[in-house]
Amino acid sequence: MATGVFSSGRAKISERTLRTDRWWLQPAFTVLVLFSFIVYATFRAFENAHYFVEPLISPFYSPCLSTGCVTGSSLLGQPLGVYHIFGMMISPSLFILIFPLGFRLTCYYYRKAYYRSFWFSPPACAVAEPHSKYTGETRAPLIMQNAHRWFFYAGCVFNVILTVDAILAFRNEHNQWGHMSVGTLVLLANATFLWLYSASCHTCRHTIGGRLRNFSAHPIRYKLWTYVSILNHKHQNFAWVSLFGVALADLYVRQVSAGSITNLYFF
Amino acid sequence: MARKLNLRIWRGNSVDGGLQNITVDANEGEVVLDVIHRVQAEQMNDLAVRWNCKAGKCGSCSMEINGKPRLACMTQVASFEEDETITLTPLRAFPVIKDLVTDVSFNYKKAMEIPAYEAPANLKPGEARMQQVDVERSQEFRKCIECFLCQDTCHVIRDHEENKKSFAGPRFFIRIAELDMHPLDTLRNRKQKAQEEHGLGMCNITKCCTEVCPEHIRITDNAIIPMKERVVDVKYDPARWLGSKIRKRDGIL
Amino acid sequence: MTNSIERYKYDILVIGAGGAGLRAAVEAREAGLKVAIICKSLFGKAHTVMAEGGVAASMGNVNDSDNWMVHFRDTMRGGKFLNHYRMAELHAKEAPERVWELEVWGALFDRTEEGKISQRNFGGHEYPRLAHVGDRTGLELIRTMQQRIVALQQKDARDHGDAESFIKVFAELTITDILKDNGKVSGAYGYWRESGAEVLFEAPAVVLATGGVGKTFKITSNSWEGTGDGHALALKAGGNLVDMEFLQFHPTGMVWPPSVRGLLVTESVRGDGGVLTNTDGIRFMFNYIPEVFKAIYADNEAEADRWYNDQANNRRPPELLPRDEVARAINSEVKAGRGTEHGGVYLDVSKRLPADVIKKKLPSMWHQFYELAGVDITKEAMEVGPTCHYVMGGVEVDPDSAAAVNVPGLFAAGEVAGGMHGSNRLGGNSLSDLLVFGRRAGIGAAEYVKSNGANPVNEATIKSAAEKIEKPFTQTGGENPYALHQELQEVTHNLVGIIRTRAEIESAIVKIADIRKRSANVTVSGDRQFNPGFHLIFDLDNMLLVAESTAKSALLREESRGGHTRDDFPGMNAQWRQVNHISSFDGSQVNVKSQKLPMIRKDLFDLFDIHELEKYMTPEEISKGGSN
Asked: Is residue A267 one of the residues assigned to a domain?
């Protein structure tokens, strides 16, 4: 039976949408960019190489937790062993990527982006979606979106680690402090973008003050809430910038590690 | 300064109808509603359209203009290209009555399902004290002019008639948020009801409601997502749930 | 058609779902009665939403010198002492309670530092008195009341199993007749706008709360609903209208672009520091301070500017004079050739306040100008000019019960009722009027029903009402209702507008009669289903009656006072202050007679400085010192 805009009783119009603007541009662009990222990230996560070169570590591999990690890359030790599936060593990246990945997957902004562009639910506003049934986030698996705050907490832990990584990058190849290279800037920028992305997150906004009923009784949390609200306004921008940031930071470390480029030192 | 404007207006009723082409004069500075009125006065006396204030304050002249849910009184003719044909249709999420007028009674039914504000029992008129910072969040949602464009654009009901029974829609999510954030409201189960009865979980935050809101209320960011987070507090966060049982702190949950 | 009419029985029928109607309905329901609410448009769209500035109530939250007596004095002054003293008294006394009550129902007004309801300055009010929510106070009021109705319905659903068992809202329904049997109201007749199907309401009491008449005029801030339906219904039911010559032209309507001409620019713009200048850059309002106001308005820019920060030691800027004074001043400036190319003057707030403050204090004004006129009011001046905004005249009622004179069972509240505002209404007094007298009409009607019981409708009464609705479809004269409406608007605008003369008014009366005659020949195209052409025919009939009443009253009043300015009689005359003009309808035309204004009670008389009263009253009245 016809449903949605073709339901009986609604105005009889045969087009799925009468929009005349290029509404498909945005979802198409989202698909392109997100898909490219996924391809690159998958390749890198499985590559299991070129993720560390003193003093730089790729954000895809930090902290490197397995005994299979290259020397010097394990900030938090190596509690995990080396495991194989089908004779292939599991990349240490896979142990940790689940957290930032989960954070982004359950992020309120990315949800909008991929529901629209990958799932066409809806492809754009006032453009009929192709699905005959829709239950939203009320049942498994999508009810798991409610776990966003746990991923947020985990994301913050990773931000701390990646910030430490950036600080450690104020050394030279011989682990001597007081130096700074392009790599330092790259890791610093990456950490900053990630913090901005996390701090602008809706869950953060809720936790820091949004959940209060009376702001006036909690002036400091209210103040923080107003700052986070300003950042929250730009959450979408931070989501993209930090995504590019991670990928570019990884790419930089990879190229340095593989010897294709030299990490230029300022001092 | 007059120009000729090509319009395509949907005319018909709940049984049948279609788009009709028409040419009409438009003057400088006019909005789409002005042009509709000219069509009505000169060419189609019985063209049905709802409108009241013509100032974007009452939310009556909601319709779809070139496929986008908009207020006809706030859509400038000058925003279209010289040779562009402007297509006017009724809202497509609701049953049509005639021409550009739809049956929006769904929204009034939903309004009836949202439990009203409950003032503290012992508070006498004139005794309420609230700080401006505490009322501002709810005030944003009270800007709503009930044009129902957000309801119209929301794919949950626009594209799925069967969801109408279990989904209140963005307009009423902001109503729930308004009350849940009201500094003096005493009803404490609004979050649970939002999830269990009003279909908050159906929303997949694709933000079309925010995009169409003529009052620029940040429906998704300021109402729906905060409500989703509040629902997590009481339903999906074991730590928070336990904490609330132990401390029973008012004003947070 | 008549054999298939829908029939409903209620205790009270409220016609109009704006502030006054909803407030009356709430009160009647709380008195235990069954109430039907009729809206001409959707529920919650009433013109009340357009009220921007605030609701006047002497709560004294910002300045504790304020009290009901000060508010009463301001109201009487504003109305040039033509107000019914008792209405002004009730209004000033009860307004604070009505505002607080809204808060109990969930309204969220802007707050003071102490957490009380904030109050702002407004023209004609001595102290900051207008409770407000930014510049969308009317919306807050209507939404609160709408939600109060819903709350009552939810309670009825719990207690009686049906949400609509005691209050039902009939949206998009037009009432064409008040029905009377045995000399008393027995109900009302109308039709669904959606289907054209006819509806009969049997109800012993009817509350009129239909608002204003702005659509009678060409340039107006009113929406299509302001067609004087209640005024005309009351006339046709045998009721009286009082002082219909008094129309308020709001001084600041938008003048450009043409499509928004007349759209209101809230007085708060001036209250918050906006100044009026002509094309010579002169702040001309200093030249227009009338003698009676010289004591409280600044006569130089320096003092006026100081007032915004120190209201105790300075007189108010003349931009905040009562609306009629400002409207006339703008009109004079434009006529003298010092107006803008679009026929207005400049109103500028951009030089007074920082951009973010403007956006915070006047958000919908910023929005309105930015989106509709392409003007950023934080950077540029607005162009404004007078627009027909409010009718002070209206149904003659008993002040305490809001019962219409001459028609048992009929009540009126809000803009449709007359007397409260005298010859000119102060800004902010309309929202408080709605609340105070809406409630009183609810009580009045409830008490009337309880003591009088039902009054069954006679079948013959129904038949004649039904014939009236069918009539337009049987007419073949070929007149276009839209064209006639436009003609009427031209006549009223040009001949009984802001400035009037005998010759013009006389010519208007002739022309209105002519349009009325031709209106019997209007032809409808299409069928009954949601047909705006058909709907307009009934509105047009109402507007013609209102216009006739206004023109005839205006002709009689040979003075200038408040919302009535005669070029041939420019001064205010104390003799005329004692006169109300009462319009009635004999079935073919409106007749206007003079009636003596009730004398102010002694205790209220004594609230004024005698020298002030001397400016308005005759020596005999002064010597009497009010009545006992």
From this structure: no
